[in-house]
Design a protein that fits this description.
Elements lengths: L1 H9 L4 H8 L3 H14 L18 H15 L9 H12 L5 H10 L16 H7 L2 H8 L9 E12 L25 E9 L4 E7 L4 H14 L5 E6 L16 E5 L10 H13 L7 H16 L2 H8 L8
Parallel strand pairs: 1-4, 4-5
Antiparallel strand pairs: 1-2, 2-3
Helix pairs in contact: 1-3, 2-3, 10-11
């Protein structure tokens, strides 16, 4: 509108007519024309709105962020609430925040109220970081005559699904608490799942139990899915049935074990969560056959979008090229 007002003025229109045509105040037209004549087009720019000055300085915000991060990573237990953070700000900086503004401040600093993951007390971060030097790990464990560009990296794991099913959050009317049936029977099925994030391939097997025989069958699936001239490196945890002799019958598959107590390095764990959240929670199963059918449908729904498989299972440290 400011540019149009100036354009009409330069065409010879008087300011009163310009104000009528643009349905605005004549004083506004006077100001726009005056600013243009004195400062050019730059005079028509909006002035930045300063707003209320921040209560905390940048250095104080850095100290607050460091305190929150340290508390989140502490092994002493407990958690910071909005009230705790407000008290810390007042004690450290003599600044008082309303509780509603505490959460806005946390969001501005990049923090979210999220669920933490469990960590075994014997877990070694050093071992995990060493394992993430995966290029060296792969070279040491795979046949030396194969170049890295001919190696496919798979992630593999198993999960139990059955009648002792979990309930999960759902959308419902505020103030209500919907009830979901939780069965008391004990029939289960075990889903062996594997994914190659580089090419989006997946392989799965459902069995009534977990043992080396079932594991060997799953490795056979991965072996058959590996193209001729390529080699599959399968990353898995140290479960008792994850033994190296399960791949002895196949000359194109190699196993690499994760560091102890490090399930978070295996993205298949996220796949299990996705299956439960989107397909298998808050429901009942008639028996083993129904478990197999519903778990199969859930897995097929997950792999129906290859990009979802790649995105969920990809890790930067596992790339070989």
């Amino acid at each position: 509108m400011r540019l149009l007002a100036v354009s009409l003025f330069l065409e010879g229109e008087n300011r009163t007519n310009i104000a009528k045509r643009l349905n605005t105040a004549r004083s506004s037209v006077n100001k726009w024309v005056s600013n243009y004549l004195s400062k050019g087009l730059g005079g028509l720019d909006s002035k930045p709105i300063k707003g209320r000055p921040a209560k905390l300085t940048p250095s104080q915000l850095e100290l607050l962020s460091a305190h929150i991060i340290q508390s989140a990573n502490s092994s002493d237990g407990g958690r910071l609430t909005g009230e705790d953070i407000g008290n810390y700000i007042f004690i450290q900086f003599s600044v008082r925040y309303h509780s509603d503004h505490i959460y806005k401040l946390l969001k501005k600093l990049g923090f979210s109220w999220i669920t933490s993951h469990s960590r075994h007390p014997k877990q070694s971060r050093e071992c995990q970081e060493t394992f993430k030097n995966f290029l060296l790990e792969t070279i040491l464990h795979t046949p030396g005559h194969l170049p890295l560009e001919r190696i496919d990296v798979w992630f593999q794991d198993e999960a139990r699904f059955g009648q002792q099913n979990q309930t999960t959050r759902l959308w419902a009317a505020t103030g209500s608490r919907p009830r979901a049936v939780k069965q008391q029977q004990f029939e289960y099925g075990y889903l062996f799942g594997a994914a190659c994030p580089e090419n989006g391939k997946t392989e799965a097997l459902i069995t009534p139990c977990v043992n080396k025989e079932a594991m060997t069958l799953h490795m056979e699936q991965i072996s058959k899915a590996t193209e001729l001239g390529r080699h599959a490196v399968v990353i898995m945890d140290g479960a008792g049935w994850h033994t190296f002799n399960t791949v002895q019958p196949f000359n194109n598959v190699t196993l690499i074990k994760l560091p102890p107590y490090s399930p978070e390095l295996n993205p298949i764990e996220q796949v299990w969560s996705w299956l439960r959240q989107h397909c298998l929670s808050n429901r009942t199963f008639k028996g083993y056959e129904d478990i197999v059918e519903q778990v199969s449908k859930a897995w097929n729904k997950f792999i129906s979008v290859p990009e979802r498989v790649r995105k969920m299972c990809s890790r930067d440290w596992v790339k070989l090229t």
